[in-house]
Amino acid sequence: MTNSINELAGADCILITGSNTTEQHPVIAGKILEAVRRGADLIIFDPRIIQLSPYASMHLAQKPGTDVACINAMMKVIVDEGLFDREFVDYRTEGFEALRGSLEACTPEWASGITGIPAGDLVKAARAFAGARSAAIVYCMGITQHTSGTDNVKALADLAMLTGNVGRPATGVNPLRGQNNVQGSCDVGGLPEFYPGYQRVDDGKARGKFEDAWGTELPRKPGLTLMEMMEAAAGGRIKFMYILGENPLVSDPNTSHVRAALENLDFLVVQDIMETDTTGLAHVALPGACWAEKDGTFTNTERRVQRVRKAVEPPGEALADWEMLCGLARAMGAPGFDFASAEEVFDEMASLAPQYEGISYERLGTLGLQWPCTAPDHPGTVFLHEGRFTRGKGRFNPVGYRPPAELPDKEYPFVLMTGRIIFQYHTGTMTRNSPTLDREVEGAYVEVNPADAADLGVSDGGRVKVASRRGELTLEARLTERVKPGEVFMPFHFAESPANILTSDALDPESKIPELKVCAVKIEGVRS
Questions:
Q1: Buried b vs exposed e over 108-123: b needs ≥16 C-beta within 10 Å?
Q2: Which segments in the chain show pLDDT lower than 50?
Q3: Residues sharing a CB contact under 8 Å with residue 469, sequence separation 6 or more, in sequence order
Q4: Burial of 163 (0-12, 13-18, 19+ CB in 10 A)
Q5: Cα separation, 393 vs 406, whole angstroms
Q6: CB of 6 closer than 8 Å to CB of 177
Q7: 5-176: CATH homologous superfamily?
Q8: Is the CB of residue 278 less than 8 Å from the CB of residue 246?
Q9: For residue 528, what pLDDT is reported?
Q10: How far apart are the first and last CA of the chain?
Q11: What pLDDT does residue 187 have?
Q12: Where exactly does CATH 3.40.50.740 map onto the chain?
């Protein structure tokens, strides 16, 4: 997040897109509702009705995968009506004329034909966002898990800069991380193109810094992303894989292909705190320690680095992840893995990542610190880009609308959307081992609009077969107005009915993230 969670309560306008916030980020949703109670405008873009919808000034239900058209139309109105922040654009950005030119054809009427949102509603949303003293953008994986996911994020960043809603309190572009330490994992080098602190692998100066620190020669090219690794495993180019705290047989798209890729490996090691579908394929399963059984840090969605303190000893032979990795490295003869504690690991990382240089376990205390924190006396950073951007001036990145990789047709006439529900978390590794949570939702289901159900001869609670070009599932149908005719929704938590056996593994060309949020399916009733 460019800004902080508490700041959302002070925003005058909040635009939420691709986020079912109350069900997946309830603390943040509480701040949003606090802003609404103060009188803030809440604008929601979501194809499906969510719990926040009744509190919204506007819920704009776009067709899945049409987000760029929505945002471009809003920017077109803002530019044409002179509602943009001229001072901010003139002094803090570059590329405005290119953006203006790219929006020439992006009228609300044009966008309405693509998105299904009435043109007048797009105009109202644009005026409300641009007219607010402080407007914040909140998004989650409903924006990024598309073949146009990078374009979606660029368009949102352009909207924030166009209206001067960056570098001030209660504004910004605020992605909500899908898991508790996604931000921290990225910060410390968990991306194939970066070393810790977002220093590029293909930057000779950065690479030299880490080669000196680690006493070894490092690769000169970025590695593979998750989906690229699966392709390489399926093709026999990767022979060994070490999976740590992930369950790709439930979380990744096109599950049948993922299973074939993992089964094609010569050797698979999976490290986790519980048995999963993926540990079932492992040649070796290593028992990891859970959060209460180890020391360390987590960095949350607002860039806050927080201490985790061991409360109990891990059971049996379980070890903290860093202990497992260091032991393996030493067994393989690698130098430099002689850390005595998680704190020593953190100190080394902080010495190499500029954003963390001023952070230590002693300073973190109970509340933590928000990076960048660049010196021992630096207080941390509540919001980013005050006064200037990291690169100097912010650059507009115009993007055009591209349709999803797979659209409905006569054979597969419905659009399937996937997501999470409040009672389960990700692949259910932990939550489905909790009887209290699991009894709330007994298994997988598909939400179907009553009009579609009538045409299909399907009743509420009846069994249906949902099929895509990649697989099929038989599960319960739930009739609801939360989804529009022609669209269906399925949670992906349930290994016995894995939604991702249906989803497409088409990738965003830049981020390589798969299009989990849009695919074409057909539905038919099943006689019991």
A1: bebbbebbebebebbb
A2: none
A3: 406, 412, 520
A4: buried
A5: 37
A6: no
A7: Dimethylsulfoxide Reductase, domain 2 (3.40.228.10)
A8: yes
A9: 65
A10: 48
A11: 95
A12: 182-370
